[in-house]
Specification:
8 strands; 8-stranded mixed beta sheet; single chain; alpha+beta; 5 helices; 151 residues
Length: 151
């Protein structure tokens, strides 16, 4: 039986920098890590004592995130659960009748699958397995304009 642990919520925003006014400055989130993904989107995670994390997602060009914002506007994009065995987790979720989309098991360091939102009460659920804990990868992952974002 795979173990599932709540990891974070992803929030789609038009721009990360103004969103930091709420999530960092007003609510006290601390920068954890972030990155630019293929030139089409940027992400930045903030964490709070006790382990809660919010991931801010910003489009950099055309793609899934700009389409999401165009049709739904800013707000909750996904909920992520990490697991210790992604293949067993996928099997368990599918055995319960849930359809998975965008399954990517090619990268040995980050593997993921998503539960189709129409079958998950309107919420995109990400199931992921990472080969390293957050503390081990946080210094290697940085958005290209991190200093400009944070200051």
């Amino acid at each position: 039986m795979p173990e599932f642990r709540f990891d974070h919520v992803g929030v789609a925003v038009n721009s990360i920098k103004p969103a930091l006014s709420l999530y960092r400055d007003a609510l006290g989130g601390e920068y954890l890590m972030g990155g630019d993904e293929g030139g089409s989107w940027r992400w930045l995670q903030l964490r709070w004592p006790g382990g809660g994390k919010v991931e801010l997602l910003e489009p950099l060009g055309e793609g899934f995130l700009s389409r999401f914002l165009g049709s739904r506007g800013e707000g909750l994009h996904h909920v992520t659960f990490k697991t210790d065995d992604i293949r067993a987790a996928i099997g368990q979720v599918e055995a319960r009748g849930y359809e998975l989309v965008d399954v990517n098991l090619d990268d040995p360091h980050w593997q993921e699958a998503f539960v189709r939102p129409s079958k998950a009460h309107g919420t995109l659920i990400q199931i992921a397995q990472s080969s390293h804990p957050d503390e081990a990868v946080k210094d290697r992952l940085r958005p290209s304009n991190l200093e400009e974002l944070l200051f």
